[in-house]
Amino acid sequence: MKLHWSPKSPFVRKVMVVAHELGCVEALQLQRSVAAMLKPNPAIMADNPLSKIPTLVLDDGQVLFDSAVICEYLDARFHGALFPSGDARWKALQQLALGDGLLDVLILWRNERERALPLQSLIDAFALKTEASLARLEREIEARPGATIDIGQIAIGCALGYLDYRFDEFAWRARAPKLAAWYATLAQRPSFVATEPADG
């Protein structure tokens, strides 16, 4: 299986955390791909018309995107339990949606602040949504991750890791100390250590 991949993308990181948790990293052929908002990449578009990563090309030629779909596919194919059943499933999927939504906000925020003339009202809106997301997680997150992990925890962990990587000045831990303690434990998992975002 070919995975359009980048060491900087938090959505790619989510897929790679899942792959490490499932022990299937060796099944993935990583193809370094750059997906810039203003420069659609023809190599990615040959597989994904949206020019977004991650994109997974299966051995039979079928193409899967976005990250949530790829994660669920890997979990099913390699007999994982990252997408639980019953009531636990809805909690995991809600956390998945919140983690992914927060990442969407952060990526748009980063793109806006790098414009020559960023729009302050957009910057303020992104900051407000980030603060509200952190406040909700601070209220709802468990004291510490358990021995098992699910897709919702992975998504939230990747969003917090992206805050560290691109928004260090935001100092999110001061706003959410309970969440910070939770993340400190999660970040020690081998799957998160192995997928730390990196430049170069």
TrEMBL record:
InterPro entries registered for this protein in UniProt: Glutathione-S-Trfase_C_sf, Glutathione_S-Trfase_N, GST_Omega/HSP26, Thioredoxin-like_sf
GST N-terminal domain boundaries: 1-82
Name under which the protein is recorded: Glutathione S-transferase
